[in-house]
Predict the 3D structure of the following.
Amino acid sequence: MLPWRRIERVEIWDARLTLPDDPERVERALVGRTVRDVGRRGKYLLFDFDEGDILLMHLRMTGQLHFSPSEPEQDPPYRRARIAFADGASLLYCDLRRFGRAWTLPREVVFDGAYWRGRVGVEPLEARFTARELGRRLAGRRTAIKAALLDQSLVAGIGNIYADEALFAARIHPETEAGRVDEPGVRRLHRAIRDRLRVAIAAGGSSIDRYRDARGERGAMQTLLRVHRRRGEPCPRCGIAIQKIRVAQRGTYVCPRCQPAPGREC
DNA sequence: ATTTTCCCCTGCCGGC
DNA sequence: TGCCGGCAGGGGAAAA
């Protein structure tokens, strides 16, 4: 919905958005550019233009983009920035918790792998993400498997929801040492990651809280989640109560029977 | 180097 | 019922 639109005006109301850069500098870098392509690398959004720097965004926890094809209706809450296009369309950025960031970088930096190394790892839905590749990346890691899944530099894009869901589907306890997941376990986990992400994308994401897509639509994945945010509900596989624990400083949901704690497999 | 802790924000909810 | 600590779809910086 953005390609071929020319940016006429950029308004950044929350200066935190562009930290550590100045909002004015980012505004100047964007005005007059025509959008060529919108892409993604891990959880980073990339806006590529006819010329000049690339705009990168990370929505973090509560960032949202709202597109409207004509002059925006009313002001949504927590609006932080707006890109107004020459044809009257606009892209509004809202963010309750103000963790999201936007910044610009030269194309050659963004398209060089060095920028992403240590930041964003293999894309889980691409062909080169094989079970063998997952195993290679987990090998030798002493941290909990869930912490490893949340580590974006290993595998890109898995967040707290889908880490829980993938581990449940693979029947692996989240606190299992990453390097000690056995080979069949790695294969189950690899399959589970891809399966759960594909289902989630097809469902339009999980609108547990306030998540909406750029058109304002809710996702349906929250109804398909099997353990995440389902403490006390029956496990869909065995029926016993889902437990909530804490792993890697994140709320973690687990079936104590289907995902036996490390060291006492059933 | 890898791993863990703290912190950035605002609003909401569960538990006392 | 009302208040309040804890927690939330994340990750960077600093510390262990």
